[in-house]
Write a structure and sequence with these properties.
single chain; 290 residues; 47% helix; globular
Amino acid sequence: MNSSVNMSSMGIDPDAYRQESLENWGHVAAGWEERREWMMGNTAPVNSRLVERLDPQPGQTILEVGAGTGDLGLEVAERLAHGGRVISTDFAPEMVAVARRQSKARNLTNVEHRVLDAEAMDLADDAVDGVVCRWAYMLMADPATALKETRRILRPGGRLAFAVWRAAEHNPWQAVPGMTLVQRGHTPPPVPGAPGIFALGEPGRIRELVTGAGFAEPELEELAFEYRYADSDDLWGALLQLSRVGRTLDVLPADEREATRAEVMQKMAPYGNEDGSYTAPAATWIALAR
């Protein structure tokens, strides 16, 4: 049974989910571009490890899936210099436009930018030498199909290096605000097995999907890092600009928005520092599949 059927059995329309997801990423693209330097400063260890695991070589063609602002793929492109190329893709045109602007700003000439659906790639079989993906598979309506598509377009011997978030208890930076919204009745509770930020948080699920797509047993490692916020306004701003939280709160009365913010900040207090900044733990899986 594929994950589209599973989603339907949960009462979730996979096509409606895809459309909502597409609209959301289009909505937050400007925020991701505005906070790109902050995001890259926090997540640099993840990008570096993914590039190490991918190990791109001169002359290769590398595909980035779910590129967002594109910085991971651009790091690969800089490593390849003029001896290879990167196809930077995302299913949201607004995100592709952001990545294209970043590529131009860095004077990279070996990057091609495309709007591409990872669940139905407009690429030939055996088209690329490697694939890299940071925090996208767990958000897809049908990650099983996306991984099968990845296997299809990857040449024999090619590598897939990807990151997915560990479970919620390892990621309070997102879990605390998310559960606050659930508890206040502003978002529904997570449905087990449904797409979401922590949907691939368990190693067994990753292995099941990767081997089911035709890869060998993946190599998994944990990478822990931190999100750093200058103050409470910075923390709250990140939530509003980078996730669905902003759209969720937009429709609420002003007093409820303020009450929600106050509760989130109270629950994030354990991660506050004496100077008013916040340091929130984060942890991701780094996976290598061949």
